[in-house]
Amino acid sequence: MRITINGMACEAGEGQTVLQAARANGIYIPSLCYHDKTGVAGKCRVCVAEVKDMRGLQATCALPAREGMEVVTNSETVLQAQRMVVDLLLSTGKHDCIACEQNGMCELQDAAYYLHIERPGLQYADVEPDIDSSSAFVYVDRSKCVSCGRCVAGCNDVVVNEVLDFGRRGHGTSIVFNADQAMGESTCVQCGECVQLCPVGALTEKKSMGKARSWETHKVRTTCPYCGVGCQLDLHVKGEQIVRVTGVEDGSPNKGRLCVKGRFGYDFIYSGDRLTTPLIKENGEFREASWDEALDLVAGKFKQIIAESGPDTIGGVSCARSINEDSYQMQKLFRAVIGTNNIDHCART
Amino acid sequence: MTNSFGEFANAKLFLCIGTNMTEAHPVASTFLKNAVRKGAKLIVVDPRKQPLVDFADIHCQIKVGSDIAFLNGLMNVLITENLYDKDFVENKCDNFDAFKAKVLEYPVERAAEISGVSAEQIREVARLLATVKPAMLCYTLGITEHTTGKDNVMSTANLQLLLGNMGMPSAGVNPLRGQNNVQGACDMGALPNVFPGYQKVIDAPMRDKFSKAWNVDKLPDQNGLMMPQMMEGLVDKKIRALYIFGENLANTEPDIRKVEHELASAEFLVCQDIFPTETTRFAHVVFPAAAWSEDDGTFSSSERRVNRVRKVKTPPGDAKPNWWIFKELAKRMGHDWASNGAQEIWDNEVSVLAPALGGIKYSRIEKDGLQWPCPTLEHPGTEFLHRDGIFTHGKGIFNPVDWAPPAEVPDKEYPFVLSTGRRLYHYHTRTQTGRAGMNQLLSEETADISQADAQKLGIKHGEYVKVRSRRGEVKVKAKVTEQVPPGMVWMAFHFRDGCANWLTNAVYDPVTFTAEYKACAVALERA
Ligand code: SF4
Ligand code: SF4
Ligand code: SF4
Ligand code: FES
Questions:
Q1: Does residue A189 form part of some domain?
Q2: End-to-end alpha carbon distance in chain A
Q3: CB contacts < 8 A (A, B)
Q4: Domain range for residue A307?
Q5: Is the pLDDT reported for residue A349 higher than 60?
Q6: What's the pLDDT score for residue A119?
Q7: What element of type H or E holds B521?
Q8: Cis ω before A199 (30° cut-off from 0)
Q9: Treating both helix axes as pointing N-terminal to C-terminal, what angle do B67-80 and B108-115 enclose, rounded to 10 degrees?
Q10: Cα B432 from Cα B419, distance rounded (Å)
Q11: Predicted model pTM
Q12: ipTM > 0.85 for the complex
């Protein structure tokens, strides 16, 4: 169907909301509480627009597109309304962006930038940071929370871990873990879905802190190295350093979801314990060796054993964690070069 | 898996047997929970009240190692009450009569007695399965890690055939594979009986095909040894050299003392790994290898999906890609291999040689992976197998199977069943997760025991206990939990100290050689 946004003709799909249609057509409407995965919350009212023949401002995230609809998102009325909301959110939180992990990928910052809010117009008493760093991998700063509810919906309805909720009614609502426990004391399983969904810097990855500004990183898509689900990950990489891992939102099978191992278990590759040189045992002790020496020794010993007692006295165990191509090479080495079918792996565990 | 994770969303009924999905395949469990929230039924068959049970309509708290009795009892009800899918059985399956005769030996009362699940509940499950269709059957190592593992697997397939739950979306028999690329290692022919793509080494035409492709005169025509046989061969010198790539056998195999004796007996042991492990200690030569993210390649997931893995950093020091190490060894043994790098290996060799992978090329899996069988470049991949009830061998074949108890059952001296598995926060022997901060979430092994046993033995939560089997003894903290039924001790193998494998029994399924990690007898006392 056709709708117009700011006088521009746009194609909108069946069942799409105005916000979705705008995004699909490359038109930015600031929004905070809507996320494809958690759906319409209708809470933040940042996404408002004027629609011809409709009274008042409409939340575009909840407004189904209809044939011929005429939408205006850039009138002074609209911008003024959006500015009010964003200004209020900036003033009621501790949004000091300078060292915030979310800087550069923050949806509140994007909205403020778009609306030219250089500093909040409303002056509130200074808000203190409200930190919970009790969990292993997630850094919580409630003073940056805009109460959009995406994390709560994600934890309960997406990954169904049922930890997060809104609570502390009375002195301002806030997200709470179980019955307002510290995150690290709660039943949270550190899957990080809430972190991935949070539009601001209220929920961030501890491991990423200070490692890179978001614009210094690029994303590389890969597959999780742990279990057989095969979750698709984006590695956020600076130089050779993975600084963050997120689930690929439109990737199969996980649709952006990850578990604690897939999201936070990546940095073993940087461990100082890594084997870095071939080793040969001499008199019960390992000594370092060159590749040529180590490979010659193994090839020589294999040839000798094959000559003395036949290829079937050699066996190989391949790896169920490494790539397909490695297993292929190993079985080829055993079958075609050594000449035995004594090749297996831990298929059974 | 015959079916796919994407089909969880529209499933109407799940039968999960021997799968602690929430911890071992966490993301899969989230999709299952979504479906249950939407109204799907969930039956959990598990000795433990594991996390899925919170979402289940029915929990059959089966005794360890009684799966076949339970399943046969279930199928007995389906047959005697005429609740099975007659059309599917008659038209799409073979060997029903022999199978039926076997199942009739398991009246529901007998099944109830062996499995500890009440006759009433078995009937309830059968009736639910008969009314809600299709159902997805999911299992993990709770089914396979038994001396009757292969029969257990066949029994789950029997059930899905009997119900006609095959060859359609949100149905099927779905083993969730443990490790990221255990499916792929099988697909690649890292098995003693098949070339890549499950083409049998005993078939002469297959050997011809591969010897041409690999440019050799002949290829060995006998099935090789399976891993436990190779390990035992180290002791009696039938195996003189063993080449271990990536596996930490000294911790992962049952009966660590036996395994270490075997490794120590090796005349020549080569290990290729990313870290020094308990296993590399026994090596004569160690090759340092590139890790995940240090090489391009592919993994194949449980749902037969070939996914890309990408390189973002160079390996440390002199560590090298694994494919390179194998290629260099081949060269030194007189064989020059053409392919350089994973893409060449896949595009020019693997996908050319394995028909089911023929349509999968790197250019097609830049984003989402493709699911095999995918025989041609135009083929979209296969979400579920056996469409319309057409099986690889024409018809679905019923296999009559009998129940047998685990090799070692509790007795006076060792009155508890030890069952083992994985926990959420670690993977296997922690070579990776132990170096990624996960110890903050779980820093030591525990012996998980029931409230009742704790009380009886005067053991408090968090107190040290000794767990002893005929093979060894460990001292670990007790975790008193309602997850575990009386009479059971449950442990994992993530930590060297207190590793369950000091205790487990090195007995195997006679066909698959899968070890009985899920059942042995232990004694438990305060330390
Ligand atoms: S990390 Fe996962 S379980 Fe924990 S609060 Fe966030 S979404 Fe919930
Ligand atoms: S923590 Fe983040 S996702 Fe959760 S309500 Fe606050 S701003 Fe929204
Ligand atoms: S993220 Fe978790 S569930 Fe997904 S593949 Fe990795 S280990 Fe498995
Ligand atoms: S995004 Fe529309 S109300 Fe929040």
A1: no
A2: 53
A3: 456
A4: 282-344
A5: no
A6: 81
A7: strand B520-526
A8: no
A9: 160
A10: 24
A11: 0.94
A12: yes
The total number of structural domains that make up chain A: 3
- The whole-chain average pLDDT of chain A stands at 94
Residue A161 lies in a domain: no
CA-derived radius of gyration, chain B: 24
Rounded CA separation A295/B331 (Å): 10
Handedness of CA A180, A185, A186, A191 (dihedral sign): positive
- CATH-assigned architecture of domain B182-377: 3-Layer(aba) Sandwich (3.40)
Beta-ladder partners of A318:
A345
Contact A238, B312 (CB under 8 A): no
For residue A127, give the nearest of A179, A182, A171 by alpha carbon. A171
- If you ran DSSP here, which 8-state letter would residue A333 be given? I
**Does residue B270 or residue B179 have the better pLDDT?**
B270
Q: Do B322 and A326 touch (CB under 8 A)?
A: yes
pLDDT for position A348: 60
The model's pLDDT over B455-497, given as tens digits with 9 standing for 90+, comes to: 999 999 999 999 999 999 999 999 999 999 999 999 998 888 8
CATH number for the domain that contains residue A260: 2.20.25.90
CATH topology of domain B416-526: Barwin-like endoglucanases (2.40.40)
Ligand 2: which residue has its CA nearest to atom 6? Answer: A145
Q: Residue A342 CA to chain centroid, in angstroms? A: 42
Q: pLDDT per residue over B306-359, tens digit each?
A: 999 999 999 999 999 999 999 999 999 999 999 999 999 999 999 999 999 999
Probe site for chain A from B236, B240, B271, B509 (most A CB atoms < 10 A): B240
Q: Long-range contacts made by residues A119-122, C-beta under 8 angstroms, separation at least 24?
A: A119/A90, A120/A87, A120/A90, A120/A91, A120/A95, A121/A87, A121/A91, A122/A87, A122/A88, A122/A91
Domain boundaries, chain B: 5-176, 182-377, 416-526
Residue A256 sits in the same domain as residue A309 = no
Residue ending a domain, choose from A239, A256, A274: A274
Ligand 1: list residues with CB < 6 Å: A 138, 154-155, 159, 161, 163-164, 188-194
Q: Cβ of A259 and B26 within 8 Å?
A: yes
Task: Give the residue from B147, B519, B309, B70 showing the smallest Cα distance to A348.
Answer: B147
- CB–CB of B297/A323 below 8 Å? yes
A95 within domain boundaries: no
Report d(CA A144, CA B78) in Å as an integer.
Answer: 58
| Whether A239 and A294 share a structural domain | no
Helical spans, DSSP H, in B50-95: 67-80, 86-92
CA A184 to chain centre: 20
User: Which amino acid does the sequence have at A252?
Assistant: S
Give the model's pLDDT for residue B249.
87
Selected residue of B4, B180, B194 to mutate for chain A interface (largest A Cβ count, 10 A) = B180
Whether A265 maps to a domain, the answer reads yes
Q: Quick check: B369 and B308 in contact, CB under 8 A?
A: yes
Cβ distance A157 to B24 less than 8 Å, yes or no, reads no
**A334, amino acid identity:** F
Asked if residue A81 has its Cβ within 6 Å of ligand 2, the reply is no
- Report CB contact under 8 Å: B293, A269: yes
**B25 part of contact set with chain A, CB < 8 Å:** yes
Strand partners for B521: B417
Cβ-count burial B273-311 (b if 16+ within 10 Å, e if not) = bbbbbbbbbbbbbbbbbbbbbbbbbbbbbbbbbbbbbbb
> How many CB atoms are closer than 10 A to CB B175?
22
Q: Using the 8-state DSSP alphabet, how is residue B243 labeled?
A: E
Residues B137-159 have a mean pLDDT of: 89
CATH code for the part of the protein at B5-176 = 3.40.228.10
Beta bridge partners of residue B136, listed in sequence order: B14
Tell me: pLDDT of B56 over 60.
Answer: yes
C-alpha span between A344 and B303 (Å, rounded): 21
